[in-house]
Write a structure and sequence with these properties.
With 271 residues, the chain is of the alpha/beta class. The chain is 40% helix and 16% strand.
Length: 271
């Protein structure tokens, strides 16, 4: 049975697309046939992070408007044979998306035996974001440990609970998972960021993972490789843990406590 997972937030720049790329890659690494769809019509950046921007011939809107088939538009990932990308259009309007057209694409993907459909949502509550979340079974709600980001994520939780197919048809609600990105225990200790408890107390949904603040995330994005492939990186390990928890494994949280640097690091410029 196919599970549709939306990666969402109320605020831009919190790491949704980075999360969509690494989360979908992590599912594929574990043998699950997975497709990740870019719902950010008009901007399109998932293909850049996935390193396939030069291979885009047809896109999501081409499929919706009957100008191409799914088989023509889907791009197979270079590193993972059971991962596919459906890019967004840079030249079309977001109003090209509708419930009926998105439903057909999702149903066709289900018929192609995809186990997971990961929907990379644009920020806010415009058409692309509403369409990305409407058919979801699960939601990864991505937030930074900052008041404005958490507040906007709380708004998205209200939309998920009220403006979804599951809400309209009185089904079991969308399963919500909280993912905190760009977390720095040192900055929390210094009072520059909200703590995990602060964020959890405000949003009141189950925490699925914490991604540490890391320069490697930006470097990986610039190289067109999801950071989860960087095995020596804390952020990659944190994303691996998120995927494992999503699939039902119990994993303790890592990278959430501040470790005071030892004498060697202090002597040689460590922070």
């Amino acid at each position: 049975m196919t599970r549709i997972v939306v990666v969402t937030s109320g605020k831009g720049g919190v790491g949704k697309t980075t999360t969509s790329a690494s989360f979908a890659s992590g599912l594929a690494m574990r043998g699950h046939k997975t497709v990740v769809i870019d719902f950010d019509v008009g901007l399109r950046n998932l293909d850049l992070i996935m390193g396939c921007e030069r291979r885009v011939v047809y896109d999501f809107v081409n499929v919706i408007q009957g100008e191409a088939t799914l088989h023509q538009a889907l791009i197979r990932d270079k590193q993972l044979e059971n991962l596919y990308i459906l890019p967004a259009s840079q030249t079309r309007d977001k109003d090209a998306l509708s419930k009926d057209t998105v439903r057909k694409v999702l149903d066709d993907l289900k018929a192609m035996d995809f186990e997971f459909i990961v929907c990379d949502s644009p920020a806010g509550i415009e058409t692309g974001a509403l369409m990305a979340s409407y058919f979801a079974d699960d939601a990864l709600v991505v937030t930074n440990p900052e008041v404005s980001s958490v507040r906007d994520s709380d708004r998205m939780l209200g939309i998920l609970s009220a403006k979804s197919l599951r809400a309209e048809t009185a089904q079991t609600p969308i399963k919500e998972h909280l993912l905190i990105t760009r977390y720095s225990p040192k900055r929390v200790l210094d009072g520059e960021m909200l703590s995990l408890k602060d964020v959890e107390d405000i949003l009141r949904i189950k925490l699925i993972g914490v991604i540490p603040e890391s320069e490697e995330v930006l470097q990986a994005s610039n190289q067109g490789v999801p950071v989860i492939h960087d095995r020596g990186c804390d952020a990659a390990a944190a994303y691996q843990d998120v995927v494992d928890r999503f699939l039902g494994d119990e994993k303790p949280l890592r990278f959430v406590d501040y470790e005071k640097p030892g004498l060697f690091k202090r002597l040689f410029g460590g922070k």
